[in-house]
Queue: 3 jobs
Job 1
Amino acid sequence: MKKEKTSKYMQLQLELQPYLEIMMKAADAIMVKDVSRYPILVIHQQQIELGVPVVVKEIKNTKWSIHASTLEEFAMKQVISAEKIEDFQGVYKDPDQFLCLFVISELGANFIFIPRSVNAN
């Protein structure tokens, strides 16, 4: 099972590679404009009401749509409960080194962090 998850994680990273730069710019804009210290990129394949569209799969003819959001929006819309905010902040990786993704797929919904640099370990 772990091998399958690792394989799907690697596949997702490959599929998102063409959008890495635009995802980094969206996360940076959220932080630079003091919108949030916790940008979250929502990666999905269906219609959702969360975040601001960055990549729309129907327009870009891709498998995934990408929306830019924040911890604050996730809390406001109760995607993350108020009791879990501190826990989330505790595990949130350095946004200068990693992008926080909330991936909604056939496997469910999961938070994952991917390195900003393809050469990062």
Note: Strands lie at 39-44, 52-55, 65-70, 98-105, 108-115.
Job 2
Amino acid sequence: MDIGDVFQRLLPGGTLNEAEAEGVFGELLTGGLDEPRMAAMLSLIQSRGPTTGELIGAARAMRRFVTPVPAGPESPGTRGPVIDTCGTGGAPKTFNISTASAVVTAAAAGPGHARVAKHGNRSRSGRGSAEVLAALDVNVDASPEIQARCLDQVGVCFCFAIHAHPAMKHAAGVRRSLGFPTIFNLLGPLTNPARASRQVIGVYGRDEASKVAGALAGLGSARAMVVHGFDGIDEITTRDRTHVFHVADGAVTHETFDPASLGVRRAEPGMIEAPDLARGVEILRGVIAGDPDPALAAARAIVELNSAAALLVAGAADDLASGMEMAREAIASGRAARTLSALIECSRAG
């Protein structure tokens, strides 16, 4: 589809179908759009919000250019399904819950039942998964081969988006200059370089979460939960209820989840916030280490809950209640701390 035709479609508020979106984003990712036209297209799409079809098409284009992590095939009891705990960001200033959950999920399940390919990036807040893991001494620049080895041996790896998606260099300048979220903020979780078939994705808005869930269904996801907290965070929250979109068998269903149904005490303001990277790392380290400090109780609870969701999606837990118990035991036994240590060592091995 010619770029002129794209603008003829978008300017009156129209949308692109899957094939059209795949074509124009494929052109963008090969440097075929100049910056003014790219900025105009991204702005027009964002002004009314990307559609599910546009997300599917653009994700297919991005997947063509990803640098893959060569994860081994699933083998029951030896290699579990590849899963991801990824968020879009743009949420209030909590510590990095999804990164803590990735480690705890891996520890609770073991590589034979779930392998967590944590896809992430740096954040404008300075507390993204890349910054947090680097502060914990994980080599976030590990090669895809090392990532795959960590995935199979430890059960978790980190896939740094800036290395996984080199074609995004063509959009980097425009995204910075626009200064507001674009469709690319929703595409990251749809383009895991280890081709995760199961995911827990946190999204910054309820409507956007619904569209991401629809895109996952259209892209053939085996199972997923797409979540948005009523308090605005891109996690299953413990401060309020959460919109949960379940993806399975090509269909999407919605529920409103209340953590009180599992006996989780509601977190009060300030209990899961981190004003800066140092405090965020301190909280995450304490949770994974099983620090019994009562001040960390709310942080532990939200990590256990989000880990339970990942364990459920992976098929390692039968329900959220049993998943929470698995996560709790992984922390209390020291397995979570050992998993983090093993990830650090594996990521740095030559």
Note: The first helix runs from residue 3 to 10.
Job 3
Amino acid sequence: MLPAFNAFSNAVAGIMLAAGFFFIRRGNVRAHRACMLTAFGVSIAFLISYLTYHAHAGDVRFLGRGIIRPVYFTILITHVSLAIVIVPLAIITLRRALKGRFASHRAIARWTWPIWMYVSITGVIVYLMVYQIYPHSPIASASSHRFAAATTLAP
């Protein structure tokens, strides 16, 4: 259930990012702000859900074969790398806007927006590849074993 929510969150963030870009290009600052704050909030919800899921479920093994494997891992590696980068970039970009420093906001947003959009889109692609297109296999982690042991009721 959480992986589907995570993909949905990424999709909503991507839609809000696209709408925010559309609105700012047309000078509608109010709608731009609403879209970008929504994208930020949804991304926070995603991050909490993602970390919760992987803390309890462990990793997931990609079982695709052939040429799709290097394609998948290229997408995954770039997605994860840029997802790490986007966290501070999004925070800095948002802070500059909220403080009214619009020239510096605009300067960093030129980097933040395409990276954030890429991460949102590739997040959905990774979900589709692992959970919908190819069979998946959870890899149990030590923390998931501890969680299962702690939550199992003894007869």
Note: The first strand starts at residue 59 and ends at 62.
